[in-house]
Amino acid sequence: MVLLVGFATLNAAFFPAGDVLLLFAVVSIVLFLTRNWSEKAILILAVVFLLQPIEWYHFIASVLNPSHQLPDLKVGEMYAEVAAYTQAGNIGDFFAGNITLGQKASLLWAVGAGRFFQTAGLFLLGFYIGRRKLFASSEKNLHLWIKILIVSAIAFAPLHSWKELIMGNETMIQQTVGTAFDMWQKLSFTLVLVSSFVILYQSTTFNPNRSLETDFRGVICNYQIYSNL
């Protein structure tokens, strides 16, 4: 996490819009806090984060109270100030502003755009996959990834269509429900890519070495059986 902050600071010094690595470093705290949790608890929390609860809270609040507004994090004003010192051309102000104001603006934009909870959910989902060893080559995992591929492929089209319809509504709906559906359709497409890669990687057609690995494991297994006998 400390290294990520260092890399983020170095990268941001040359880029006025901030660096996403700072968001990753901050969000990764959730992995530290849940490191001793059960697999079920980790998966539940990942689902909660990926459901985008903050966006749904603001949407429901706006339905109950039409005067409800999203919190103003002043991101626009910050980026306007970033643009001003960038155009001024002072390299010292440029570097100093990028690693301070630019990073702050980038982080707050991610919070306002729903990226904070999305990133936390994806981190926990990856943590869960690692705990369950779902990338390991086995028939059980292969069947699971095939199911994930089918479900995510079927879900992508309606999620994408609903997202496009929602984005045609008023700003409040776009920035709440629209954000949630945008995240979900991207997640479904991501799962299509990941599951496809895993399935192809375990296929001998795309990974000839896997057949050799399987044969080698079979030899070792038979050797252990006969040794025990």
**Mean pLDDT across every amino acid position:** 88
Report Rg.
23 Å
Q: What is the total domain count?
A: 2
First CA to last CA: what distance? 51 Å
| Count of strand segments | 0
**Structural class of the helices, strands and pairings?**
mainly alpha
Helix content: over 70%
Element pattern in H and E: HHHHHHHHHHHH
What's the overall geometry? globular
Q: Which residues sit in consecutive blocks of at least 5 with pLDDT less than 50?
A: 211-229
Strand content: under 5%
Distinct helical segment count: 12
Largest sheet: none
Q: Descriptors for this entry?
A:
single chain; 229 residues; mainly alpha; 2 domains; 12 helices; globular; disordered C terminus
Detailed description of the structure:
It is a single chain. With about 230 residues, this protein is an all-alpha fold. The chain has two domains: about 130 residues, no CATH class; about 100 residues. Helices cover about 80% and strands about 0% of the residues. It starts with a helix and ends with a helix. The C terminus is likely disordered.
Question: What's the short version?
Answer:
The protein is built from 12 helices and no strands. It is mostly helical and 229 residues long.
Show the helix and strand layout.
Layout: H1 2-12, H2 20-27, H3 29-33, H4 39-50, H5 53-64, H6 75-88, H7 91-112, H8 115-132, H9 139-166, H10 171-175, H11 177-201, H12 208-228
Helix pairs in contact: 1-2, 4-8, 6-7, 9-11
